[in-house]
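Standup notes
- DV: blocked on the single-chain target, sequence here:
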Amino acid sequence: MVTEKRENRLNVNNQRLSFRFIVAGVVAVLLAITGFYWFLFKSPVKLNTPISQPGAAIFVSNVAPAMVSLLVNPEGLQSIEKKGEISQIKNSLLAKTNINFNDDIKPWLSNEITLAVTSEDIDRDPENGLQPGYLMALATDNPEKSREFVELLFSRRTLAGTNLEVEQYKGVKLLYDTPEIITSKKSQNPKSQIQNSLAGAVVDDFVLFANDLKVVKEAINNIQAPNLNLSSDPEYQKAVKELPKNAVAVAFFKLPTLAKWQGLELAESTYKSQILSLVLKSPGLLAESTFLSRSKLNSVSTALSKPVDALNYIPESAGLAIAGANLSNLPNSNLDKLWQQITATIYGSSQEAIARGMQPLIDVQKSWDINWKEDIFSWVRGEYALAILPNQEVNQEKNINPNWVFVVEKTPQLEQGIAKLDNIATNNEFNVSSLILNNQKIAVWTELKAIPENSSVNVEAKVKGAHTSIDNYEIFTSDLALMEKIINHQEHTLMENSNFQDSIANLPQPNQGYIYIDWKKSQEFLESQQPLLKFVELLGKPLFDNLRSLTVSSYGQEAETLKGGVFFQLEK
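- DV (later): unblocked, structure below
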């Protein structure tokens, strides 16, 4: 059974590789945007105004798992490159196709390239292996030139050894390769056999390519039966209304079918679809996402019309900072519903997601024997800011826990919350006491240990946490050195940091707060918590090599949607 599943996965992977010309083209263009965009604010360039939404949606089924579109002509990006990077990508992709971009594609390519996963299995027969359907639609300014290109492409494939077939279907000329069966060298199992084929056609103002003739025929059917295509789907129509102006790339996902295509089960079903857009901004880019629910949500997160003042107590050396208001509402909010859906689908539960991704949270939870929802979130009703900072006592040890600071606005519930933490500290045999630090009264939780030394016994006090009251805020820190830095203003705050100011200025207000990550300061820590991140960095190397910070925020108060964005700030 295990071998059979492995072969089935191999079959799916090979299907994707057989369509690599189409997939790689879209990926390369998107990486070109993200990887080389930092040149834009050095050498300003005016791109053609993107179209408002993908025109190729009329070819895509309303049950398709995913559709990704580039809404500008990639030639418009040529002027932002410095060393011919985009040209190198195009040339390397076309190297084995005998196709020249400038001669064969540029003369007719317009302002849209769309790639869609049309179905999880083309023939809907899992017994012969899964064969996803892929469709690529390229907008054309010159249909006649486009037809010449399609015929040229297939004639060259014929010279390379494929068998060309031509068919008329509903008034459209279809060109396709006779399916060629390729069997895995490792197994003779029928499920490891795939079809290495390509089908193409020119329909109206689009050039269509697919990995199977059935996919092109279904695309033509979708035009002639509007109730079948994505553009007429009410869920999609609602989603495109959320698109920002000047989006250069758009992706739309049907979450239940997307999860199924990836071999996952959508354990929670609050959100049924998602639309994602990419907008170029100086000095970076904004990836904005809207999740849509089929029913009204009972609770939305607390909205803020200005940056959280609690950030004025967070040192700018923070590698990661989270700020918002009313944590007590979080467990019942639309954000929590999204968190539950994502983690339950990928990891099985939110607890497992935390265990895999944020070990420091698990360490604090175990050492203090606390429940985040009941012991912390329940009494934080005002503003809050949480930050992780490099530990100054690291020396040669890279596995030492980082420092943290937690700032909470004073509310009637604060005193009760502190009393609860004091009680938890006492139950864990910590000492609850106070001291004066630079004329400031500090409450500390310490762990006392007796250390025998010769004929005497010394007592060592290890600080497990400290807190004090400043202005309208209570400040909690992991140690006294960090507390001293904050109360003596030994460094600028995060709110005074120009990079942070630039980042939040590119996110809409009102919003539900921020998650700010200084990439250079927190990269090592984040990689230690989530090893998969290194693989993601490798895929998006041009972007991550020039990434200064990323800021995540959610905004919008509609009862059936959750809207948010990630601003990637790039090096100047």
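- Follow-up: Confidence is low (pLDDT under 50) at residues 1-46, 79-85, 182-194, 394-399.
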